Structures are given as structure tokens and as C-alpha cells.
Amino acid sequence: MNPESSTHDRQVSRNDNNQQIDQRIFDLYDEYCHGEMDRREFLRRASLVTVAGVSALSMAQALLPRYAEAAVVSFNDDRIKARYVKYPSPGGNSGEMRGYLVQPAGEGPFPAVLVVHENRGLNPYIEDVARRCALQGFLALAPDGLYPAGGYPGNDDEGRTLQRGLDQAKLKQDMLNSAQYLKALDQSTGALGATGFCWGGGVVNFLAVNMGQDIRAVVPYYGASVSGDDVASIRAAVMVQSAEKDPRINALWPDFEAALKANNVDYQRFLYPDTQHGFHNNSTPRYNEAAAELSWQRTLEFFQEHLAD
């Protein structure tokens, strides 16, 4: 069996499961992902929900990530070169950072894209996104914000707890330092973009504010927006990727859009129908194949447009 076909089949299966999960369970999972309850409480509360007279516990269990099934690009794909790197991070949580650096096979230099993880550290899904970027000709760095706390622990529950325990201002500084490190690498053309998911989407907006002309393009996926006053500092082109069923993030959009317009920021936003927060992550049934593929195509085209010399 062709490995790529096998991966596609598994993703379609998980996407089909999406249609069978009650929205109340998706809503509970969203609370769980954002640290408002632990796994035990998530499963307990899900077990109290009934669908056609049957407990929804199995739906909740199906939402937990399965990273081994979700890899799109193998870590040893000969079209890319991947390695872990360490670099200074002054003002961050420990003064040093570690990240997953992936480049296309070849000499370079390449335009650069920072890939920022969710609120649980550098998990396998985010590493895979970095590899996907490299396959399209970008030098990609996925920093692990949990490195000062020992690194991503191998599961999202512990990762979420560790990330919540870090100094959040210093954590953002670690991400800013990571972007500056990537931009300055010899393998980089110096043309920098950034994309991130959930917490990482909010960080991408933070980078747009704090890097000014040093970052050309940003693509936040369902990330928290910045304050209206901060938008005046944005010089990058902005593409916002939004899920329809994501009330906490979508409630921020009208004020964010008003500030983008008032400050003449080059922006566009796509709202994907019938999608959940996290629709790009193909390791859980929140994944929506059609929206994930379309949004990713748009993201890549956006970077290709704005990061070309």
C-alpha cells in the first residue's frame, strides 16, 4: 500500500468521525484543550451526556489526539533535512531555546517560516507542519516553548500543565527570539513569515506587532487577536484562518478587523463553514479535511507571494 494513500485514508476516517460527534462534546473538548478542566474531568462530564440514550464517553475518547496516525511527511523524507537546534534566548524563561529546524534538500538560502505550537508544547503534529512547510521550499523552525521546563513531555496533558506554569511574558519573548534567530540564519533569505495554531495563532499576532517590518507575512489559525492600539505597529500582511464554531475567538474578530482597517493593514480573513476550533489538526476528529487542505493551500500561496525576493 502506498504510504501517502494510507495516511489519507486514516485522515478521511477521522474526518468522517467528526460528523458523528455531538457538538456538546466538541464544546467540552474545547474547554479541556484550553486548560479549563483536566482529562479526567473532561471524560467524566462527557460520560454524563447522552446521545440517543447512550453515553457520549466514546465520543470524548475519540477526540483525544492520535499523532502516530497523523503524520503527513515522514521525519526521514529525503526531500527535506531536519534537526533539532539550540540557540540563545535572552529575556526568556531560561536564556536558551530548542527548536525543530527543517529545510528543503538543496543549498538554499530559503524564505523562512516560523511554526508556533498550541498551548501544550512542540508535539508531533506541529513538527509535521514544519516538515510540510519545508516540502514547499521554506526553511521552517518550530520552537518548543517547553524547553526551559524540560521540553515537550510526550503527551498533551502534561504539556498543557507545563506551559501554563511558565512565565507567559518570557514565553512570548522566547518565541520572538526564535523568529529573530530563524531570520538571521545563513540558510534563510531573511524573508520571514509565521504561522501558528490556537495559542500559537495568538503568538503570531504578537510577532506581527513586535517585529514590525522584520516580518513580512503572518497566518494565525484561530488565534487570539491583539489589542486595537497594538495593531498600529503591524507592517506584515495578515491572513486570518477561522473556524465557524469557535465563539470565543470569533467574538474578538469585529474589534480586530476594525483596527486592521483603521490602520490600513493588508489583511484577509477566511471563515470555514461547519468547522471546529482546531480543524487543521489531523490527529483528532476536529479535523476537517476540506477546510484544512484549502486553508493550507491558501497559507502556502500567501507565503510564496509575500516571502519571494
Describe the structure.
By secondary structure, the protein is α/β, with parallel strands linked by helices. The chain has two domains: about 5-65, no CATH class; about 70-305, Alpha/Beta hydrolase fold, catalytic domain (Rossmann fold), CATH 3.40.50.1820. It has eleven helices and ten strands. It has helices spanning about 5-20, 25-35, 40-45, 55-65, 125-135, 155-165, 170-185, 200-210, 245-250, 255-260, 290-305; strands at about 50, 55, 80-90, 95-105, 110-115, 140-145, 190-195, 215-220, 235-245, 265-275. Strands 3-4-6-5-7-8-9-10 form an eight-stranded mixed sheet, with helices on both faces. The chain has a two-stranded antiparallel sheet with strand order 1-2. α5 (about 125-135) links the parallel β5 (about 110-115) and β6. α2 packs antiparallel against α3 (about 40-45), α3 runs antiparallel to α4 (about 55-65) and α7 (about 170-185) packs across α8 (about 200-210). The protein is globular, with a radius of gyration of 19 Å. The model is unreliable at about 1-20 (pLDDT under 50).
